[in-house]
Amino acid sequence: DVPKVPDCRGDSDGPRRGSLCERHCAAINNAQGDLGELGCHLHRPRVPPAVSTPSCCQQHSEEVCESCVVRTTLTAENAVEANKLSNNYKFGFKKWKSHVTERPWEDRSEIVKELYSDLNVIRGSGGSTLTCGNVLYLLLFGWWLSLLYVLVAAVMFITVLGAPYGWLCWNLAGYFLWPFGKVIQKVEGMSPLSPQVPKCHQVCEGSVGESSALLGGPTPRRWVPTGHWQRGSTAVWLCLGYPVLLLAHGLVCVTSWLLIVLIPVAKLSARAALRVLLLPPQRLLARRLSSTEVPLEGEVILCCYRAANPYYYKYTVDGINVFAVNLLPLVLVTLVLGYVDSSNHLTGSAVKFSLALLSIMPLSYYIGMAIASISAQSNFAVGAVVNATFGSITELTFYITALIKGSREGNRCYAEVVKSALTGTLVGCVLFVPGLCMVIGGIRHQEQRFNSRSAGVSSALLFLSVGGVFAPTLFSKVYGKLVCGECHNVSQNPLGHYLCHNCHFDLMDNNGTLYYSHVQPLVYTVSILLPAAYLIGLFFTLKTHTHIYDIHVSDCHSECPPLSWPLSLLCGVPHVSALSPVPGHHHSAVVHWSRWRALLILLLSTLCMSACADLATEHISPILTNSTISQYFIGVTVLAMVPELPEIVNGIQFALQNNLSLSIEIGNCIAVQVCMLQIPILVLFTIFYPTNFTLVFSDLHVYASMFSVVLMNYIFMDGKCDYFQGTVLVMVYFILLAVYFFAPSPSGC
Fold first, then answer.
1. Which residues form the Sodium/calcium exchanger membrane region domain (predicted)?
2. Which residue segments constitute the domains of the chain, with CATH numbers given?
């Protein structure tokens, strides 16, 4: 079904600018709307006949079409989003999937629109209300909430003054037992002695067979208080009934919000507590809906059909994903518990260490969104500075605090844990992140393609960085003195074989002459050359060879006359701007976070990150000492990959949209930054604050890192992949984890 596209690798002269063939190729890219289809291959659904590629080759020479470069055209609602999408393809910039501006309501799907509904819309036919989510609501909240309303109604009847609210609670007890398919309305036109049905409905009641105020049957005539009696009834309600129900609904709201899929129940409880229970009882009407009835006149306050919705993982609050919102209180709990209970009276070190690590995840998300927001609203220079300054702040904060604590305690184990975390981040981002994205993306897409040239740049930098980082280690293996802790003669012969344990290369022989005269200068030289190579890579990809990525964001409404789709897709604009999906209908940018707000959140998140990292390093010592698991394994897995979880989620989302290029770039960029930025910064830090950190790694770290980089380059050579290749990368990563798990702890731990 996919139309064949001629090989579009450009020759040395490049494509002929403005040719009709080039415009056709750009239109094919834009017709798909896929943001990640880079390079010269297409893996897309059927392209409309108006822009099909065969017509290009039928009307033009074979030579011109073969030199045609297929460009990836990004579509964005506004200029800020266009800038963010463009930054995603820039080397060294943080890749961010979520929007930094408010999406136009009309551009959202019906599924997403339903997530943000206020539960006040009556549908024509809601379908069956007997669902698993509704039954779960009944088991978790419905039965005891209904019972509580019955008890409050009894109290209101006993007070006599609160009798009107007693009837209200009695009716709402049945409503909250099973609120699905029922409606609560605020009605007008009530008189003190009339039934609780508006006059217009009294006319319609016989024709449509209207039910009672709640569950059916005739509508009762009840006495409605007026004057001083009404004020006394309200006072009794606000003192005795409302606080209890407010507390109950608050508990339901918080619990269901934390469960995420039950957010409709949270909205239901919040609206009931803050709106329904504060209205006069004679103004409320609760009833069951039927498919044939005529809607009443009056405002609909509550109308719920489903208690659960699995799509609420997409829900955002002011642009922040609901998972990050729910994990934010965990940060406050961690900080309060960690610094108030410093003597571990309430909880132990293991709990505090786990809470500190979990708190790093939402803080990493906020830091990432703040960086993306600032970069999207600023020029290139500001965005580059912000990404270079705060791009690795999460990892560096933990590493530096761990080294400081190890230096104060004189414990070399902290330095070994930091080395394990650095190696784990490198291996995980080279193998696990792209492998997992290939597997998940390959489930939806049979074969995924990516820009092999841009991946080649990252691969070359990875080879350079790995060679530079491990150069001092290889140097020490060649010229260092092998020292063993204990040796036994196996053959009982003085000239026979000896079995030695805890062997390592000693660099401090002869008062450290080898280390201070040879290894340390080599470390400083490498720490200067690696950031310089990183800057050259930035200059290469962002200035002199930007065509490697060949990403364009078109402003179709400003360049082309109003054309019907897909003819309007034939315009390709080489500059970055916003694409309006409908001609003449352009959306202005309404950002979630302004630059100053994003900067404030970035600084606060960094400060909280430092506090959480301090707590994690403070309480990791008992785990390293008492745990039977190797310290290598703890550093490679927990300490290395937990801070990268937001990046992993972004990579998976890109892969699901068939944008594997960004998924691969996420892992490669993190790995390159570990070697070319983070490690030189740690070396620079040790100059001003002496620690036990030396750029000499164990053999296991060296072999695992080099093998991972070689395997990654072999997989990425052809510019295409599937779930099988991703499975290979993930399995190799798990094999390395097993090696680290069974490896003995490093010396000094």
1. 352-471, 598-740
2. 113-186+230-310 (no CATH), 315-485+505-546+589-742 (1.20.1420.30)
